[in-house]
UniProtKB/TrEMBL annotation:
SUPFAM superfamilies: FAD-binding/transporter-associated domain-like, FAD-linked oxidases, C-terminal domain. It is an enzyme of class 1 (oxidoreductase). Pfam families: Cytokin-bind, FAD_binding_4. GO terms for biological process: cytokinin metabolic process. Keywords: FAD, Flavoprotein, Glycoprotein, Oxidoreductase, Signal. Its cofactor is FAD. This is cytokinin dehydrogenase. One of its GO terms (molecular function) is FAD binding. Belongs to the oxygen-dependent FAD-linked oxidoreductase family. PROSITE patterns: FAD_PCMH, OX2_COVAL_FAD. It comes from Chenopodium quinoa. Residues 48-227 form the FAD-binding PCMH-type domain.
Amino acid sequence: MATKLFLIAIAIYRLIVTVGLTTLGPTELLHLSTDEVESASVDFGRLTRTEPVAVFRPRSDVDVADLVKTATSTSGFTVSARGHGHSINGQAHTADGVVVEMGRRRDGRNGPSGPKVNVREEYVDVWGGELWVDVLRSTLEYGLAPRSWTDYLYLTVGGTLSNAGISGQAFNFGPQISNVFELDVVTGKGELKTCSEKMNSELFHAVLGGLGQFGIITRARIALEPAPQRVSWIRVLYSNFTAFTKDQEYLISLHDKPSSQKFDYVEGFVIVDEGLINNWRSSFFSPKNPVKISSLGASNNGDVLYCLEITKNYFDSSKSVDQEIDALLKNLDFIPASEFTTDLPYVDFLDRVHKAELKLRSKGLWEVPHPWLNLFVPKSRIDEFDKGVFKGILGNKTSGPILIYPMNKHKWDERTSVVTPNEEVFYLVALLRSALENGEETQTLEYLTDQNRRILKFCEEAKIGVKQYLPHYTTQQEWINHFGDKWDHFYKMKMEFDPKRILATGQRIFESIIDVNDVALR
């Protein structure tokens, strides 16, 4: 490690001198401190630890390009971009190189500029390391907001666009990668390229959902729309899975209807643990009168309930929102008297998960292992998945929320690198569990990890045809199987834009062909 550190330090010091960064000393860009390196060695998943040689904090996209160029031309080290560190399986880690901290400085010192809103054309230009919550704050000053979201806003723009970026709006607007006009990307050759549908289009589509394999996103131009002021947030419960999925699929089929004839957000979650219904996002349920699964008709259904979660956005001046909601709810087959509604500002709804985060942090339950598993399940097999997983493998303890909601495939651009099931409607099933050492075996990391393996084995043996979202594999053959027909093109793009395979090695898709010990010190 000491040798690698010395060699990379020499290379970056030369980079600083070469590009004339006279306003900053080397330590302002290259961080070797224990705290900086330790922070970049772990991620939200806390399932793995990989220590980089150094951490690099760029002031601009040119800094990123010069670093990558140095890595490929004179020194031979890998480069991984890190946003908010919310990966699960070390995807932003690198053992033989430098982690680029893309997050914008919070101390007011020199760094990338903030979001720039174009009101007339309804878009915003943002740094790749910008948090979505800061994008929201900036655009709301102009009465605008992005159209497609993630459930958690403390993620970086470059991070979500490298995967897909999904939430309950995806049925209507598609994932976040379907709402991008233009990107600036530093390729694995150290080239800074602007790309879009019409300019460097192969790079544009490869990078979107490309898991960081082809370049580092330094700027994104995001589509905006007029921002609503308030949200009516509704939950209804089901004990019958077929009725639940039928209603979800009906609601997403309304995507082309006028806004008055559809909901703006459609999600759902599975409840197999009675404690979860009263404790998770419990503002919907009164602690003085807790909801009992047995009282809602689930006792003959393996004690499983399904919650449909929907919203209606509106402006303060709107007078018809209640009538519009009532008209839509009349077509749904949920359990009578199981409707729970709250009304809140648009910003509060979008930032809802952060409030839960603060509560968990206060109890010491945030920085724990998160063996999450996210799957895309084809509509034709979702009933079988319900029987085998929700009513089978999971038992009656979940250790965290289980999201389930459908999306329309035609809202996803097939030219991007994301892989989805080959059906028009497919479901996200997200098992968002936390491992705790509290004496309960069903909440241990070993138990939950084994349960994930059993779920994947069940899907494989039953030929469910799932695709992992935020995928994690350990062999290239598994990656080839994951990409299927897209693999040949994915490989071709890798050879075109990162031929030395130095980028995002933590994904374990390709092995770098550089040798950090074979350095030309010239």
